[in-house]
Specification:
Oligomer: heterodimer
Radius of gyration of chain B: 19 Å
Strand order of the largest sheet of chain A: 3-5-6-7-4-8-10-9
Protein name (chain A): Proteasome assembly chaperone 1
Shape of chain A: globular
Largest sheet of chain B: 5 strands, antiparallel
Structural class of chain A: alpha/beta
Subunit structure (chain A): Forms a heterodimer with PSMG2. The PSMG1-PSMG2 heterodimer interacts directly with the PSMA5 and PSMA7 proteasome alpha subunits.
Helix content of chain B: 40-55%
InterPro entries (chain A): Proteasome_assmbl_chp_1
Largest sheet of chain A: 8 strands, mixed
Family (chain A): Belongs to the PSMG1 family.
Number of strands of chain A: 10
Distance between the termini of chain B: 59 Å
Strand order of the largest sheet of chain B: 8-1-2-9-10
Helix content of chain A: 25-40%
Order of helices and strands of chain A: EEHHEHEHEHEEHEEHEHH
GO cellular component, one term (chain A): protein folding chaperone complex
């Protein structure tokens, strides 16, 4: 332990390990049955469950094994979800085929049984007129330890390669590493990251190093890269992470990509629907005016 | 690197950043948009109204405040910080009038607010004010003024500017559309402010608040009806412009 100039205590690792310290560590490492039970219960609480469409019964096989698809569009985060809801889902008839239900510390409730849809669900839809086109709306946060489970439940352990994945998500602009000052960046803006097997043109510039993708989008992209599935991530850097009209409209260039082309038909109506979505989901907070 | 130099306001990072000031500028972006336009004979302040809770008294949620009879300001950022700054500015306006027997100039009160903000970037144990302000008014010489301050304590005069959420989008719109013709007429300046806000406001005219000061006249707040009228005029003009465009192309 060390105290800094400002009085904060910082835990610094000690390289001079002594025998006594190692013994103490060993004692701490021995697991009691109680520990094991707690760990088991926690794992059960954090289990990702795949539920089938309307019946909400558990689905035992991976989703894409039961419903093979050629195009899979995943929206992660409120702005990406709003974009797909107003521009893509509004222009066709989609049926809900399943959802994943999960709980983690990010959920605002400790009740793991009665979870609200936006807190803990990723909902999967299929286009009725073309059942090989799939869509996923994910507004909840999938924690690091749940991402692999999510991928297994959705894609399975041996996925088909003849499908194309498009992921849409947002990130705060302060996390964009660039020599330019953050205030000079034209926020919001779109960047793309794709797997090696993705050969189509992307509708914006590629994400430069040392910037990286994070969380579930990164997990999906890594999975696709390993399994040689063509996939592209469209990452919108914005300074408004809550539902925001300008941020949602920043995804519009993605409509020209091959995976989304033809899915968005009525743009003026979509813009109207987007404005309605904004008014219904305004959060009232008095801290900022 | 940032995490070691962003705790105390008085610490510079090795590359010369005061991270708390920069983080305060992020807090400003969490407030809704405000736009200010300096016309030839008018100054206009337009803001995106915050959505008010059902049981909340709307009159107590204000983004545009008068500092004196001839000066008013709009802010974006932390509500409580704005209240403190506005109170201090109002007291200073009256104190100046009592001492010097002249009302403050717009530049004077802007400098006062900016100096206050700067003090909080150089004090131990205090954090900067998390607000940016647009200050408008007419001086005794009859010249319209528009100033903007930010959490670092800098202030600049502008012809037109925007602060808060999506300020960049609004500023780009203003850069394209602010012309001498656009602001020659009072009504055109008001329309320009509303058009700029409509670019980013979530739900159209009913979420816009507008205030104007004309030369030798007190501050005037527009009613919801007056704003709706302006918005419908703007929409008509847009439709006509689009019809003309489609005629030309055919």
């Amino acid at each position: 332990m060390a105290a800094t100039f400002f009085g904060e205590v910082v835990k610094a690792p000690c390289r001079a390990g002594t025998e006594e310290e190692e013994e103490e560590d060993d004692e701490g490492r021995r697991e009691t049955p109680e520990d094991r039970e707690v760990r088991r219960q926690l794992a059960k609480k954090r289990e990702v469950r795949l539920l089938q469409g309307q019946t909400k019964t558990s689905l035992e096989v991976p989703l894409l094994e039961k419903y093979p698809c050629s195009k899979f569009i995943i929206a992660i985060g409120s702005n990406a979800v709003a974009f797909l809801s107003s521009f893509v889902m509004n222009s066709g008839v989609w049926e809900e085929v399943g959802c994943t239900k999960l709980w983690n510390e990010w959920c605002r409730t400790t009740d793991t049984v009665h979870l609200s849809p936006t807190e803990a669900f990723c909902v999967f839809y299929r286009l009725k007129s073309n059942p090989s086109i799939f869509l996923c709306q994910c507004s909840c946060y999938v924690a690091e330890d749940q991402q692999y489970q999510w991928l297994e439940k959705v894609f399975g352990s041996c996925p088909r390669k003849n499908m194309q994945i498009t992921i849409l998500t947002c990130r705060h602009i302060t996390e964009y590493k660039t020599p330019e000052a953050p205030s000079s960046l034209p926020s919001p803006f779109l960047k793309a990251l794709k797997t090696q097997t993705y050969k189509d043109a992307v509708c914006c510039s590629l994400l430069e190093q040392p910037n990286i993708a994070h969380d579930l989008p990164a997990a999906v992209l890594s999975y696709c890269q390993v399994w040689k599935i063509p996939a592209v991530l469209y990452l919108c850097y914005t300074d408004v992470m809550q539902l925001d009209l300008v941020t949602v409209e920043a995804f519009k260039p993605a409509l020209s990509s091959r995976s989304l082309a033809g899915l968005a038909k009525n743009i003026p109506q979509s813009t109207e629907m987007l404005k309605r979505l904004m008014t219904t989901s305004e959060i009232q907070s008095n801290i900022y005016t | 690197m940032a995490s070691r130099y962003d705790r105390a306001i008085t610490v510079f990072s090795p590359d010369g950043h005061l991270f708390q000031v920069e983080y305060a500028q992020e807090a400003v972006k969490k407030g809704s948009t405000a736009v200010g336009i300096r016309g030839t004979n008018i100054v206009v302040l337009g803001v995106e109204k915050k959505s008010v809770a059902k049981l909340q008294d709307e009159r107590t949620v204000r983004k545009i405040c008068a500092l004196d009879d001839h000066v008013c300001m709009a802010f974006a950022g932390l509500t409580a910080d704005a209240r403190v700054v506005i109170n201090r500015a109002r007291v200073e306006c009256q104190s100046h009038k009592l001492t010097v027997e002249d009302p403050v100039t717009v530049e004077y009160i802007t400098r006062f607010i900016a100096t206050l903000k700067q003090k909080y970037t150089q004090s131990n144990g205090r954090r900067p004010f998390g607000i940016s302000a647009l200050i408008v008014g007419f001086d005794d010489d009859g010249i319209p003024r528009l100033y903007q301050t930010d959490p670092s304590g800098t202030y600049h005069a502008w012809k037109a500017n925007a602060i808060g959420r999506s300020a960049k989008t609004v500023r780009e719109f203003l850069e394209k559309n602010y012309t001498e013709d656009a602001i020659a007429n009072d009504n055109e300046a008001i329309k320009l402010a509303i058009r700029a806000l409509l670019e980013v406001v979530q739900s159209g005219g009913k979420n816009i608040e507008l205030a104007i000061i004309r030369r030798n006249q007190p501050l005037k707040m527009f009613s919801a009806k007056e704003i709706e009228l302006q918005v419908s005029e703007i929409e008509k003009e847009k439709e006509e412009a689009e019809k003309k465009k489609s005629k030309k192309s055919t």
